[in-house]
Structures are given as C-alpha cells and as structure tokens.
Amino acid sequence: MRSFIKPRKKKLFDDMTTMWLAFIVLVSIALMVFGGVIYYKSSFYIKMIDSLKENNAKKTYIVNHLKDNISLIQMQASLDKDVKETNRILKQSMKNLFDLIPDQITLTKVVMQKKSLLLCGYTNSIDSYTLLLEPPLKSIFTKSIVKFSQDGKGHTLFESFNTMDVLKDQNVSR
Amino acid sequence: MSLLKSLKKRLVYQFIAIVIYETTCDIKVQRLKNGEIVFEEAKSFEIESKEKLNDTIIDYLDSLQEIVEQTYLALFLNTHGQGVVPSCAKSVYDKFHIDFDSVKHVCINNDYSIYASLIDIKWVEKIFDHSGLDFVFSPFLVLNELIQNFQLSTDTTLYLLSNTNSMTIMIFRGKQFLYGTFVNIAKEEDLLDSGFENDTFSNNSMEDEMMDEIDLDIDDTEDILNILETQSTQIDENEEKVVKIKNKLFGQDLRFVKYLDASLREFYDSDLYVSDFVNKVIVFDAAKLNVDIIKYLEDELLVEIEVIPASIDKVLIDLSKKEVGYFA
What we know:
The complex is a heterodimer.
Chain A: H1 15-100, E1 105-112, E2 116-123, H2 126-140, E3 143-150, E4 156-163
Antiparallel strand pairs in A: 1-2, 2-4, 3-4
Chain B: H1 2-10, E1 13-20, E2 24-33, E3 36-46, H2 55-67, E4 70-76, E5 82-85, H3 90-95, E6 103-108, E7 112-117, H4 118-127, E8 135-137, H5 139-148, E9 156-162, E10 166-173, E11 176-184, H6 203-217, H7 221-248, H8 251-269, E12 280-285, H9 291-301, E13 304-309, H10 312-324
Parallel strand pairs in B: 1-4, 4-8, 9-12, 12-13
Antiparallel strand pairs in B: 1-2, 2-3, 5-7, 6-7, 9-10, 10-11
C-alpha cells in the first residue's frame, strides 16, 4: 500500500446484476433443495417399492404354496368324496346283499369284487340255499357256481362264486 | 483465488489520473478489459481554485464511475505539507522536526519514507467528497516509479520531476537515498531562502571549487597557472552565456532555477543530509521544460543533464494498477 489513502470498496457487480445474481443463486439453491427432497423421496419410494416387491414375491410364493395345498386338499376332498360315495355304494350293496340273505343261511365269508362275489357260509339244507339265495344271485350275476359240503356238526357248508362277466380285474374291495 | 483473478481480469477496469494545478485540472481516463485498453481519454478542465472542484468535473467523474463499477481515482498530491526522509524510523522524523503522529508515511524499499500531513490528506479527500477518491500518490512515489525504469548509476545523481506547477527532487547515491524535496513553483513562496538573487553561484565560488579539485590532482605550480588562465577564460565566456540566459528567464522558469538552486544548497549545507557532490542530473520532464533552463543549469552546475519526457498521468495509472493488483 503506497497510497496515502485506502481505495473505496468496489462492488464486483452493479446493483441490478447483484440482484439478478442473488435471485439466480436463491432459485438455484431452492431447486437444489427441491431436487434433494425429490431424490430423498424417490429413493425412499424406490426402497419401499423394492421392499414391497420382495414382500410381494414372498406372498406370491406363499399363495402358490397355498394354491398347491388347496389343489391337494381339493384332490383329497374329491378323493374323500369318491371314497365316501364308493363306500356308500358299497354299503348299499352290502346292505342289499345282506337283505338277500335269508335267515336260514349264515354267512361266514363274503368277498365282493367289482364283477364277482364269493359267499361262504352254512345253511340248514341245500334246498334252503337253492330256493332262497340262488335265484336272486342268478338274477344279478351271469354265472353262479356253488359247492356244498358237510361239517361235523350237521351243517351244510357252501361256497358260492358268482360273476357278472369274465374276470379281468383282480382288485378286491371289501 | 485464480478464479477471482480471472474474473477480475475479464471485468472492465477504469483508472483515472487526476492532477490539479492552480487554474486547471487534468484528468486522464484509461479503461481496460482483458488487459487491453478499450478506451482512453485525456481532458483538461478549468477550475476557479484548487480548493474546490467545479460541477463539470464532478459530473464528468460521476458519469465515468457510472459506466464502470471498477473505477479507481488517483490524485497527484502537490501540496506543501509533504516530503521525504532518508529512513523509515520514527526517530529520524524527530530529527527532521516532523511530528510523526500528524503525518501519514509510506516506507519505500525499507530505505526511505515519504510522508504527507494528515491535514493535506483530509483536505484532498474533502475536495473529492462528492466523486470519491481511491489513491493519493506522493510526487516522490511518482518520481521513484520513473527512476525504477532506469538503471541507477553509482554516481550521486539528482532526479528531478518537472511538472507544470511543481518540481520534485530526489538525490540518490547508487540506490541509497540522500535527499528529497517538493516545491510548488507556480507562485513565489517564501519557504526557501535560496540566495539565488544575490548570485550565490558566483564565478568566484565556482573558481574556488575548481581550484579545490585541481589541488587534489596537480602539484606543479606552472601547470596550475596555465590551467587557471584557461579556466579563467572559460569562466568569462561562461559568465556571459549564463547572464544572457538568465536574463531570458522570468516568472516560473526563474523560480524553477531558484528553487533547484536552493534545494541543492540545502543538500550541500544541511547537516541533516549525507552531503555528496551531484555528478549527474536526470530531469523527468512532464511540463515541456524551457530549453534555456537546461542550458543554464548545465552551465551553472557544471554537470551533465539528461532530460527524459515523462507523463505523470501514465505513472499515476500504473501506480493505481499496481495498488489494485491489476496485471495485464
């Protein structure tokens, strides 16, 4: 400093330019803050969406698993229904069968198959069987073969094998 | 910082140099952009007194400052209340009977200091109260700036800044400052008792000085007599020439010679200064000095005088640039 006085402080820009610059700076700051908020919010939402996607994937997996379970349960229910129906039909058949059996005949063994019926038991006499049981059996089955034998107590044992058709299926239902 | 420097450089800077004389005020304007001069103007306004700037000048300065924000006004201080002392120490000010607290001083190269009275500084600040002022430069600083452009000789050299209404004198021996003074030559001042009117620089004294010098070198009596005769003839011729020129000088030119003479006398006689014979005079002429003065001085002082044209405005602008740190 070689002057006897200090220079006056100079403005870098005139008042109008300063105002404009201040305005631009303020707007820039506001935009930056707004941008920051948007960025923060968007990152928050992105994180939330990721979380929801992950959650959704888990739920979808659970839903698929439940669907599998449902289909299994439905299948089981259907099976159960079928079994119940079959059982009902079988029960009805058994009832019908037992209704056919007269009082003079006592059954010891019944083997009911889809197209055949094996009946073992004893009767008072062969006639009782021939008259009371054989006709209904013959009316139901196409072929009826019966074997008689005597036990030591004076009862007549019989073994009746009835078929509706030619035997193909060996599945036995009881 | 470099960004600010670059920005500053790209902005328009305006430097105004002002020199106030008794009846005129010279203003030079230099406008720079990217280190290049884009506008330059020099105007001279008439003023009623040095005490007050007229409205035309104030309006002109205001209009310039309105155009460019970065405007720096520099004033050439040409008041009496200033000077230079050969040291920066306060004790030296006491030695020169200058009240250190009532002056503003600037130390130059840790060698000498220039000062101006606080009253004078306040006075110029008051003059520029309306338009404002940034720099007030001492004439010694301006002269120092001009001297810096030259290779300082090892001889004792008197540097003189000649302006329209003032002269600034600085004497250096090599780089060592010996003496300095500032004189307003516009009107007769009673500040210096020069004794010029009484022909102090008489032929006798000159003869005596020459004799002294000759005594140092030559012992032979005949040789001395021969030389004295030759010198006497030369002196007679010189005397006629000097008187002839002196008769042509009047007014301000006469005062110029008178005050230079008084200053040299002060330098030689005063115990305050390290006295040494001035071997060379370099005049920085900012006022188209009368050639007769140079001739007269050369004959009177018997030293080589070199005259270099100078512009105070230019130096003031250069100083302002340095102060601001503006480098193209």
